[in-house]
Amino acid sequence: MVQRHCFTDDQWELVADLVEVEPKTTGRPPKDCRILLNGIFWILRTGAAWRDLPERFGKWQTVYDHFNHWSKDGTFDAILRRLQKATVDAEEIDEGLWCVDGTLVRAARCAAGAVKKGSRANASSQALGPCRGGLATKIHFLCDGKGQPFMAVLSPGQDHESRDLQELLDSTELSGFESDDQILPARLAGDKGYRAEWIDDWLLEQGIAPVIPSKKNEDRDSRAIPFDKGLYRRRCIIEQLIGWLK
After folding, report:
1. Which of 173, 195, 208, 233 has its CA 20 to 30 A from that of 64?
2. Range from 21-25, 168-172, 195-199 carrying the lowest mean pLDDT
3. Mean pLDDT for the chain?
4. What is the dihedral of CA 212, 215, 219, 220, to 10 degrees?
């Protein structure tokens, strides 16, 4: 019987080669990567503190050290790509509509000294910046019409959503195992924060129809693509995704 928040055999077989390490001939033997990953996902799914990690996953410091290492060396990115490829081959991706949105996450009080005033480069590297209520990080999300998350980009809290849209889409190199052709959506839905002429033009150059409402002070008929109000209602899926993740 598989315990909650743990890999099944089929799930582990899909990603095992991305995290397994070569056995050592000297020194302490390496930890079981499956147990370490199970411990990491237990923390992520329960929201518990690292120190509260159950003993069956090993020492919490060891699990945290591997989480920190795999976050920095691209292991989790590789796992995400592998899972996305499997989803593409299973034809579970909604290629007709993708949705984009951003949300703020307030920084803890201990982060108050992280960013020096006027240091834009420092703020960007730490993804911390001033907004209403103090320092915050803005997370820019991209998902399909079913609410499956594809990519997330971090920026300082004061960044406008439109500023990181191009990076968000360019970073989403979605393809399957059977074909290396990159998948792009037929339409992209976003709120009025993404309404700009350059965004419409750039999306159309990529072969993507924007589903973005016009602002009150502009004429909708002047835009190259008519606004699909019915399709725009489906954008609520990304708001539900953000609420679930939070």
Report:
1. 173
2. 21-25
3. 86
4. 20
Q: The whole model's pTM is what?
A: 0.81
Q: Which of 160, 163, 164 is nearest to 152 (CA)?
A: 164
Decide: residue 120, CB within 10 A, 0-12 exposed, 13-18 middle, 19+ buried.
exposed
Residue 210: partners with Cβ closer than 8 Å, 6 or more residues away: 187, 188, 190, 194, 199, 200, 203, 204, 225
Residue 36 has pLDDT above 60, yes or no: yes
167 contacts 199 by C-beta, under 8 angstroms: no
Joined tokens for residue 46: 């329960």
pLDDT value for 149: 92
| Residues 105, 243: Cα–Cα separation, whole Å | 12
Secondary element (H or E) of residue 39:
helix 33-46
Q: Closest by alpha carbon to 168, among 203, 204, 201, 196?
A: 203
Q: Which long-range contacts (CB under 8 A, 24 or more apart) does 129-132 make?
A: 129/155, 129/156, 129/157, 129/158, 129/159, 130/156, 130/157, 130/158, 131/104, 131/157, 131/158
61: Cβ contacts below 8 Å, ≥ 6 apart: 50
Cα–Cα distance measured from residue 20 to residue 34, given in angstroms and rounded to the nearest whole number: 8
pLDDT digit string (tens) for 204-246?
A: 999 999 999 998 888 767 787 888 999 999 999 999 999 988 8
Q: What is the CA radius of gyration of the chain?
A: 21
pLDDT in the model for residue 17: 92
Tens digit of pLDDT for each residue in 67-104? 999 999 999 999 999 999 999 999 999 999 999 999 99
In sequence order, what DSSP letters do the residues of 47-73 get, joined into one string?
---GGG--GGG--HHHHHHHHHHHHHT
